[in-house]
Amino acid sequence: MTIWNLGSINADFVYAVPHIPAPGETLAATGRQVFLGGKGANTSVAAARAGAHVQHIGAVGHDGAWAIERLLEYGVDTQFIIMLDIETAQAMIAVDPNGENAIILHPGANAEIPQAVMQEALSVAQTGDWFVTQNETNLQRTGAMLAKKMGLKVGYLAAPFDSDRVQAVLEYLDFLILNQVEAAQLKAATGADPSALGVTDVIVTLGADGADWYHNGAKHHFEAIPVTPVDTTGAGDTFAGYVLAGLDRGLPMAQAISLAMKAAAVMVTRHGTADAIPDLSEVQAYQS
Q1: Mind listing the pLDDT tens digit for each residue in 88-147?
Q2: Separation CA 44–CA 71 (nearest Å)
Q3: CB 251 within 8 A of CB 119
Q4: Which of 110, 125, 152, 187 has its CA 20 to 30 A from that of 32?
């Protein structure tokens, strides 16, 4: 089967800083690196490195040809990534010595993906394929609605969080991933716990406390794998990509989550975003 990912593609500028800057503070970085990133690209790379066939639907500017080439290198099908006369999206990421981060996004081409490109991509999708998206592109509701009508399974990574965006796609979802803060924000907006959203499978990630999976309302808890993080950027996307790849390959949800927990644990011990995501053999060999 195939995972069709309507997803963002960013140039990630990662700055090592002594601490996350406070409002009004000017802070000198101690290092700077540039990576392929974006929640969409990260998720596509993670799913591909976990063994899934991934078709990425997205856009870059003419300055983003390198990003398309990098995605290809990691096994992502880039047939439906279009190049526009708009600059490639950018993320400015500050990372402190404890691995915590603060991120500023410039949406660029991610917000201008042509609907015709998405429709062309999904015209060759098959019933039972996955369609997944995140809140860093346009066409989220349109894509989810079209995919559902076509018999695809629909997943949503609710970040960066916007309760209106989540509620706009909720009726089409088979699968939803939130972090603990996002789950609380969604409950404040809807009055519903993750168990009562009407989505078959909801995962709430809890950072160092693991993750909760709600299946038809029933809660199952998974403990985190203890590691010393150096950079938490992209860990959630790695987790999501591995879960989706596992489900696409026919793994039971519990097994897919356990594998994804290991992948995220490996990821936070590395610096970088899409370029640092481990492949399946590394995850399977990892010993905590």
Answers
A1: 999 998 989 988 888 898 999 999 999 999 999 999 999 999 999 999 999 999 999 999
A2: 8
A3: no
A4: 110
| Cβ count near 284 (within 10 Å) | 11
CA-CA distance, 86 to 109, in Å (whole number)? 6
pLDDT digits (tens, 9 = 90+) for 180-232: 999 999 999 999 999 999 999 999 999 889 999 999 989 999 999 999 888 88
Residue 13: what are its φ and ψ, rounded to 5°?
-100, 110
CB 279 within 8 A of CB 49: yes
Beta strands in 19-165 (DSSP E): 31-37, 53-61, 77-84, 89-95, 101-106, 130-134, 153-157
Q: Look at strands 89-95 and 211-215 and give their pairing.
A: unpaired
- List the chain domain ranges: 2-22+30-279
56 vs 71: CA distance, rounded Å:
9
Which one-letter amino acid corresponds to residue 22? A
Are 110 and 94 within 8 A, CB to CB? no
Strands 218-222 and 211-215: antiparallel
Q: Which fold has domain 2-22+30-279?
A: UDP-N-acetylmuramoyl-L-alanine:D-glutamate ligase (3.40.1190)
Residue 229 · residue 276 · CB < 8 Å: no
For residues 261 and 249, give the distance between their C-alpha atoms in angstroms, rounded to a whole number: 17
Query: CB–CB of 18/27 below 8 Å?
Result: yes
- CB neighbourhood size of 91 (10 A): 22
Burial of 233 (0-12, 13-18, 19+ CB in 10 A): buried
